[in-house]
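Sharing a chain and its predicted structure for anyone who wants a worked example. Both blocks are below, sequence first, tokens second.
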Amino acid sequence: MKSKISLCMIVRDEEAFLDKCLQSVVGVVDETVVVDTGSTDSSAEIAKRHGARVLSHPWQNDFAEARNFALDAASGDWILVLDADEELPEESRARMKDIVDTTKADGVEMTVRGLMPETDVLKYEDSRIVRLFRNKKDYRYVLPVLEQIRPSIEKNHGVIISSDLIIVNRGYSYEIVQGGAKRGQRILEILSAALSASPANPYLRCQLGLTMMSAGQRDEAYSRLKSVLELDYEQMGPALLDRLFMKMSQIALDRNENEEAVWYAGKSLEYNPDNGISMYVAAIGLLSLNRISEGYEQLLKIKRKKDSSLRLDLQLDHLIKACKELLKI
């Protein structure tokens, strides 16, 4: 029997993105539930034009609460969760129906690919997140910000599988979003409030540091991220730990703390040996410490892996050439 998929979204002043998002799921989802938390633009009208059921819901300063309000209204066998600035690429559209019709799992982990600004060393940054899951009353989001569905699925002994499905997020390439709001400011405020209530939560402390870094508050971000290491941080899982140590290595390198940068990059690579940014930070840190041979080997690893997420081709070639000259290769 064919499974039905309900798309569940929460929106607020997303008219710049919403039309493309909803176009990208045509033929994939059987129902669209859009929870509007206070838009003053045409978001609700755009959603209705696409046949969505639009529900108004007052914003409670809690993303999980708003997500769960949308889940309560869904009638499909499966839930797909997207943000308005996200789209399903063609290859994911073609595969999603097959997965939900054949798998015995309860949740599906997908790659959320955030496209980065042209000035960033990364073309995109990938995160592995459960965005597709069975519609069961016990599967509900937790945490008021950077909310997660995985804990409730695992708590109820649900099985989560990995997949090659991709969601493209275009919002990271824009600093100003949601009707002129500064990106990350609302998240910072909610995270700070959540941490006041749960100061020993490593996940919240880590996410606060990562959000501060994205907002340009690098020194304070570094301090916050370092403080995570004083807690039982291993419980956060390999994907977040990889990102934690990668970001710490980047900040340490910017601060000319090269020994620390190399160490943090190495920790990141323990969790994700293919992390191109951490490999690059390790290489630059090693070269700065006059460990030319080791840095050269890291540069060659990056070159061999041909990481499509990096904007480093020219820099790599120059650095490799310089290393060869120094090593007389």
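Comments welcome. The longest strand covers residues 124-134.
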